[in-house]
Write a structure and sequence with these properties.
This protein has helices spanning about 5-10, 15-20, 65-75, 85-90, and strands at about 25, 30, 40, 45-50, 55, 60. By secondary structure, the chain is α+β, with helices and mostly antiparallel strands. Strands 1, 2, 3, 4, 5 and 6 form a six-stranded antiparallel β-sheet that branches. The protein is globular. The two termini are about 20 Å apart.
Protein backbone atom coordinates (compact mmCIF):
# COMPACT_ATOMS: atom_id res chain seq x y z
CA UNK A 1 0.00 0.00 0.00
CA UNK A 2 1.34 3.40 -0.91
CA UNK A 3 1.38 6.33 1.49
CA UNK A 4 -1.28 8.09 -0.59
CA UNK A 5 -3.53 5.01 -0.47
CA UNK A 6 -3.10 4.83 3.30
CA UNK A 7 -3.91 8.54 3.66
CA UNK A 8 -7.12 8.14 1.62
CA UNK A 9 -8.06 5.04 3.61
CA UNK A 10 -7.50 6.74 6.99
CA UNK A 11 -9.40 9.89 6.04
CA UNK A 12 -12.37 7.96 4.60
CA UNK A 13 -12.38 4.99 6.97
CA UNK A 14 -15.20 2.46 7.09
CA UNK A 15 -15.39 -1.16 8.20
CA UNK A 16 -14.56 -2.45 4.71
CA UNK A 17 -11.26 -0.53 4.92
CA UNK A 18 -9.99 -3.24 7.26
CA UNK A 19 -9.86 -5.66 4.33
CA UNK A 20 -7.73 -3.13 2.40
CA UNK A 21 -5.26 -3.27 5.30
CA UNK A 22 -5.04 -7.06 5.02
CA UNK A 23 -7.42 -7.99 7.83
CA UNK A 24 -9.86 -10.86 7.41
CA UNK A 25 -13.30 -11.22 8.97
CA UNK A 26 -13.53 -14.07 11.49
CA UNK A 27 -16.96 -14.11 13.09
CA UNK A 28 -17.54 -10.81 14.87
CA UNK A 29 -13.82 -9.99 14.79
CA UNK A 30 -11.27 -8.96 12.18
CA UNK A 31 -7.81 -10.57 12.37
CA UNK A 32 -4.42 -9.84 10.79
CA UNK A 33 -1.48 -12.18 10.30
CA UNK A 34 1.00 -9.72 11.93
CA UNK A 35 -0.74 -9.63 15.29
CA UNK A 36 -2.62 -11.75 17.79
CA UNK A 37 -4.88 -8.77 18.54
CA UNK A 38 -8.43 -8.97 17.27
CA UNK A 39 -10.42 -6.01 15.97
CA UNK A 40 -14.14 -5.38 16.35
CA UNK A 41 -16.31 -2.65 14.88
CA UNK A 42 -19.13 -1.11 16.88
CA UNK A 43 -20.90 1.78 15.21
CA UNK A 44 -18.11 3.96 13.88
CA UNK A 45 -15.46 2.78 16.38
CA UNK A 46 -12.70 0.25 16.01
CA UNK A 47 -12.07 -1.71 19.20
CA UNK A 48 -8.93 -3.76 19.82
CA UNK A 49 -9.23 -6.97 21.80
CA UNK A 50 -6.02 -8.32 23.30
CA UNK A 51 -6.15 -11.59 25.18
CA UNK A 52 -9.91 -11.44 25.59
CA UNK A 53 -9.99 -7.85 26.87
CA UNK A 54 -10.90 -4.72 24.91
CA UNK A 55 -8.00 -2.26 25.24
CA UNK A 56 -9.49 1.23 25.41
CA UNK A 57 -6.27 3.12 24.65
CA UNK A 58 -6.02 1.28 21.32
CA UNK A 59 -9.59 2.01 20.26
CA UNK A 60 -10.22 4.61 17.58
CA UNK A 61 -13.12 6.41 15.99
CA UNK A 62 -13.51 6.14 12.22
CA UNK A 63 -13.41 9.94 11.94
CA UNK A 64 -10.04 10.25 13.73
CA UNK A 65 -7.34 9.37 11.18
CA UNK A 66 -4.49 10.01 13.64
CA UNK A 67 -5.99 7.62 16.20
CA UNK A 68 -6.57 4.97 13.53
CA UNK A 69 -2.96 5.30 12.36
CA UNK A 70 -1.68 4.98 15.95
CA UNK A 71 -3.90 1.91 16.51
CA UNK A 72 -2.53 0.18 13.41
CA UNK A 73 1.06 1.02 14.40
CA UNK A 74 0.60 -0.13 18.01
CA UNK A 75 -0.93 -3.43 16.87
CA UNK A 76 1.68 -4.13 14.15
CA UNK A 77 -0.82 -3.98 11.28
CA UNK A 78 1.37 -1.38 9.54
CA UNK A 79 5.08 -0.75 10.05
CA UNK A 80 6.09 2.27 12.12
CA UNK A 81 7.46 5.27 10.23
CA UNK A 82 6.83 3.77 6.80
CA UNK A 83 4.26 6.42 5.89
CA UNK A 84 4.91 8.91 8.69
CA UNK A 85 6.55 11.74 6.73
CA UNK A 86 3.97 11.62 3.96
CA UNK A 87 1.05 11.65 6.39
CA UNK A 88 2.56 14.59 8.28
CA UNK A 89 3.04 16.44 5.01
CA UNK A 90 -0.68 15.89 4.26
CA UNK A 91 -1.60 17.48 7.59
CA UNK A 92 -1.97 14.54 9.98
CA UNK A 93 0.10 15.68 12.96
CA UNK A 94 1.18 12.24 14.01
Amino acid sequence: MTSEELYVLLTNFEEESLADLGLEKDGEYWVHSNTSDRFRVTGNRLLVNRGGTDIGRLSASFDEPKSLYRTFIDTDVIEPATHLLYLRKKGLNI
